[in-house]
Amino acid sequence: MDDQFNVRYTAQLARLDLTDAEIEKFQSQLGQVLSHVEQLRKVDVSAVAATAHANAVTNVFRADESRPFFSQETVLSNAPRSANGLIVVPKVIE
Amino acid sequence: MSLTSLSIAELQAQFRSGAASPVEAIDALEARIAALDGRIHGYLSRDFATARALAEKADVSLPLGGVPIAIKDVINVKGEPCTAASKMLLGYTSTYDATVISKLRAAGAIPFGRCNLDEFAMGSSTENSAFGRTMNPWDFSRIPGGSSGGSAAVVAADEAFAALGSDTGGSIRQPAALCGCVGLKPTYGRVSRFGLIAFASSLDQIGPFTKTVRDAGLLTNVIAGRDTMDSTSLDVPVEDATALLGQDLKGVKLGMPREYFISGIDPQVDAAVRAACKHYESLGAEIVEVSLPHTEHAVSVYYVIATAEASANLARFDGVRYGHRAQTENLLEMYARSRAEGFGAEVKRRIILGTYVLSSGYYDAYYLRAQKVRTLIRDDFTRAFEQVDAIICPTSPEPAFKAGDRSDDPMKMYLADIFTIACNLAGTCGVSLPCGFATTDGVRLPIGVQLIGQPWKEARLLQIAHAYEQATSWHKERPVL
Description:
Chain A contains three helices and two strands; from the N terminus they run H-H-H-E-E. By secondary structure, chain A is mainly alpha-helical. Chain B has an eleven-stranded mixed sheet.
């Protein structure tokens, strides 16, 4: 398997806090999965195009017209914290 | 016979003759669920007050007029919870209807309950639900399959007439097989994904769980079609999925892929599916061997592509606009801790794997390579469909397994999807229907046969499924509850 695989670093990229126990466990479990995935290296894909989607759809346009949208109250209804019609988050700029 | 054991078509006949009313159907469901669901745990929430109000004014002349439908808890229904079986979305209330729900409502159907699933539809056993597992109605010590295990269990246990689920790598077909009902994954792009909480956007598709093949067609007719809110739903004419039901199988060719009849399959599953192939021959179909040579790579390709897409889709759960928020005064810490507290182990595993295969330096080796092998898997199907109308194979390599057996062994769990994944990668349609029973430890467990059809040919696929269903009585068997 890929000895570069580093759960601690990848978790930082994913903005996901993991405990040391989780890191250790995932390192071994996902290492196993990656070993299985290694078999893809055996396949000759030199002349193969990638499939991003089952149906190749490009440039789906619609008219640039205003449409009814949610009210401010609806948009904020699931927000963990809001005030004055805004979502409140911890301070970003010191 | 109780109302709840009826199929959609039978229930509609009762509505239209006046023998039963939509309100009585809701009452019967409520009583059945009250009596059973404490043991099965197929539902995460129910809303009978709203359902009864809708039933009182139901127009039974509509295509699904007055028919109650259970909904996997990953599809938004306005005013109802939508948890994705995750602590992340505990307390969330949907502010809009998914397109499939708008379409159900327009056809007169009544969404009334929310079915359990593996968290964010990630799993094959429904054990990854943050709110407790669902029991297989045939043996409570076993899993119902997944991820749409709740949808399958409630239909099999007559706690619903039909249900909607979603299928990313087999999440409709595999639980349908393990619970003994019909599960259809439509062609990718056939049904709008708007309002479905996204797992892997290039693979996800919504589809029905039903007691009969005809019912699967009735539901598909209602939910199918181009939607401007989902640019991957295609503008392909929606044919009547029930149009060919009852036609004979003369001239129909079915392909048995040699890569799907391999050692390692449960012998009782292998025997039942081979017997179904023989039965098809007696019904006039021709059975030929076909080859899908890249089958061995499907699981690997899937777990790269699906986790990559999942890691991107689940980035939206950051504690800002909705969902769980960790209490902290630092923004970056809020993201990372909200996600740590909100997500369960399997979701975290997949986010890590998906982030890794997309990360700088590994993208080409894993993600791009997987997308290229996906092309080869698709080409396998295209070539096979030049010879046959549908592919016939097992849905799952084994009947329902015991809860806890592999919940901590992800690789073993991932292999449970070995026969269903390629259909999603190829983007075509597939259906599972009952084809027999295995006897394990003295209990009877349903076996499913899978038919994989040509893209956009759901009507043909259901015709083939229906011919076998009508010639056998497997679909009439129900668990003793």
